[in-house]
Structure to design on (350 residues):
């Protein structure tokens, strides 16, 4: 395949430059479970020198989601699984539907597989009868908004010759999940990751859930050892620390509510997020992003999310101090654009 537009094929993560005040990548502001750090300091030599055995981790995940190990395929992050699924499902000139304004890797991998791309809006009526594969992000990235399970279930049932990929990278923030639907259907994958709520982004671990038959077929495309023994051990430890997971979700919810309140006070419209991402709408987003970068602040432009159709930028919720600094710099950026002096106080973030 000849790559004629490399810019389209680069994801926003490849373009990110870490700033002093970094609001870009979706990382847990609390880090990871203390149990994971403790386990890391006590890892034995065999865990490192031997080839990994994923049995214990697979069993732990299966108990967590009330499914069988045969319904799970591990991968080096959900990103690797997205690539794997496109290799498995798409042939040249197949039609691929991608949720408008969602994760850029869907577009990249579909294009690399030679697919014809169409965007869709989940709030509208859609006909997927000609689609080979449909990518849905729930909760969505960058908006953090939920897609109703009635829409997803209805599509999976109606278009049973189409493969649906439900990316639940931030699924821990939702009460509902499409896991049960995926296990009971022969045309649906759910993707999960340890990078977000569990705070293990550096370990690169994700997993696909589907029917036994579908997972068996997909596993034929997987490498024999996609993850390390260290990753297996630490991920299993993270899954067992329910308190840290609950604390992370609660912390992010509180900080998100505060940030949304302050952004709304400044006249910004924000997405109805339930996750650690917020999409901030602004008609002057290009200017704001440019000034923020000069002030040492990193955000992600809405242009990085294919088919977004909205002016704005995504921020990821951080710790209180970083969030305060972001608001401070945002005020400075607005003042700079408006060419006015502005007195800034951190005390209004209570």
């Amino acid at each position: 395949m000849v790559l004629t537009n490399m810019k389209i094929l680069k994801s926003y993560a490849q373009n990110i430059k870490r700033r002093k005040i970094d609001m870009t990548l979706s990382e847990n502001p609390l880090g990871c479970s203390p149990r994971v750090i403790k386990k890391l300091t006590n890892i034995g030599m065999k865990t490192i020198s031997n080839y990994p055995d994923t049995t214990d981790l697979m069993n732990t995940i299966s108990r967590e989601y009330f499914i069988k190990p045969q319904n799970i395929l591990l991968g080096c992050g959900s990103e690797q699984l997205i690539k794997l699924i496109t290799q498995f499902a798409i042939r040249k000139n197949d039609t691929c539907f991608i949720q408008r304004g969602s994760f850029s890797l869907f577009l990249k991998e579909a294009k690399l597989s030679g697919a014809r791309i169409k965007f869709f809006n989940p709030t509208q009526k859609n006909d997927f009868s000609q689609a080979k594969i449909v990518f849905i992000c729930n909760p969505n990235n960058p908006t953090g908004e939920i897609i109703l399970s009635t829409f997803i279930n209805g599509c999976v049932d109606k278009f049973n010759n189409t493969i649906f990929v439900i990316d639940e990278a931030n699924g821990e923030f939702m009460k509902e999940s499409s896991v049960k639907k995926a296990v009971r259907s022969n045309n649906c994958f759910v993707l999960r990751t340890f990078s977000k709520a569990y705070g293990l982004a550096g370990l690169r671990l994700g997993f696909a859930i589907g029917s036994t038959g579908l997972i068996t077929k997909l596993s034929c495309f997987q490498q024999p050892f996609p993850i390390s023994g260290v990753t297996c051990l630490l991920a299993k430890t993270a899954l067992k620390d329910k308190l840290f997971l609950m604390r992370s979700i609660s912390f992010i919810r509180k900080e998100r509510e505060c940030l949304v309140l302050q952004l709304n006070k400044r006249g910004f419209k924000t997405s109805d997020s339930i996750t650690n991402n917020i999409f901030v709408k602004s008609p002057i987003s290009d200017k704001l992003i440019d000034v923020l970068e000069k002030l040492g602040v990193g955000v992600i432009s809405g242009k990085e999310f294919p088919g977004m159709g909205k002016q704005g930028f995504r921020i990821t919720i951080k710790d209180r101090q970083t969030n305060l600094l972001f608001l401070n710099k945002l005020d400075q950026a607005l003042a700079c654009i408006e060419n006015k002096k502005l007195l800034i106080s951190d005390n209004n973030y209570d």
